[in-house]
Amino acid sequence: MTDATEASETITYDVVVVGAGPVGENVADRARASGLSAAIVESELVGGECSYWACMPSKALLRPAVARADARRVPGLRHLVEGPLDAAAVLAHRDSYTSHWKDDGQVGWLDSIGVDLYRGHGRLAGTRQVTVTAGDGTVRRLIARHAVAVCTGSRAVVPDLPGVADAKPWTSREATSSDHVPGRLVVVGGGVVGVEMATAWQALGARVTLLVRGEGLLPKMEPFAGELVADALREAGADVRTNTSVREVHREGATLTVTLDDGATVEADEILFATGRAPRTDDLGLETVGLEPGAWLTVDDSCKVTGSDWLYAVGDVNHRALLTHQGKYQARIAGAAIAARAQKVPLLETDRWGTHSATADHDAVPQVVFTDPEAASAGLTLAAAEAAGHRVRAVDHDLAAVAGSGLYADGYRGRARMIVDLDREILLGVTFVGPGVSELLHSATVAIAAEVPIERLWHAVPAYPTISEVWLRLLETYRG
After folding, report:
1. CATH 3.50.50.60 correct for 156-276
2. Which of this chain's residues are annotated to bind NAD(+) (predicted)?
């Protein structure tokens, strides 16, 4: 650790951002757009986890798998896509979407908006101070006139099990950047990363065993989402086991032996642990400002850290919604709040849906799981709504019964649910599961965020024949 007094150079900016992923980039961009000077610090690649090890590479791996599955359900086309995927072409396409793990384009964008980039490890060094230690040992001290924004994201957590260290397990990073298709892959964890990577690598030719501690997949979504995704994975050839935990892992040469809690074993070439994430705050100098190293940072709706008037925590590090699009949303909110406070513009703290309040992180968080079938949700599940004390009704409809679904794919299987607040007659949550449903999600997000009354939604007429006609069917079911 380097003390701030050892710095060879001190530079002052209005805003200093630590972490140049999508969240940090957006905070810096909003600061510059408001006329503030900004610096950004990054120890790895500009563009962050999303660009190189998460959103972009994972979706590049998944798109061919889902496209082939869709094509196989279309008469007159399925016979053309019966063969295996060209794994080499898929991996090459993935590499192009990560810019071959080079960040020249992202660096150029920062330069174009006038944000200064400092490469190295950034640490807080007291109030409004950040030290940056470069790879050659050079230390600079950055001082922020108005705000420091911590945008360092999160990292995958690997459980401390016997043999894990020697097994050289995959995390989400290795799973999205591997240059080869493993013959046998064990995936531990039934959340988003687990099911998406199981889908991708099974389609690319790996024999996948998915081990899930709980009773089903995708536990944060409606139960039927995990059920439909599990059925599809099994039909694709994956071995999906629930209520199962790993006891130990042993590697002997190229072969892994995974021992389960019941004593059974599974052999594999690689094992992916998709079992949770932790904040990247352990070596951030939080102790210099009275905060606990390694902790998630608690913030208000402007993303200002509790008890501070200058420190912001934006994106994964505040644990509000670990999703890139929500982090970028928070960044826009935080950037506007930082600029307003710097310019001494009063914030309307009571305005839930104002420019400076990240209300959607409470009420209308959207998420898509890009499996086959897709699972897409916004807002609250039935269980979450009831736990929050709302008086609600769940309204379900079979997506296969909608005219557009049958045209989209033979044998279409899917389900839709909306959660209605019976006291206010608005939507609190919507979930869709089925092929192609990700494109339905934004309409649900708008309806929830805007608190559109059910009586108004009745007049939003869906085009025929599309899958979106499910909106009409849900409303008809609700009205009876």
Report:
1. yes
2. 189-196, 276
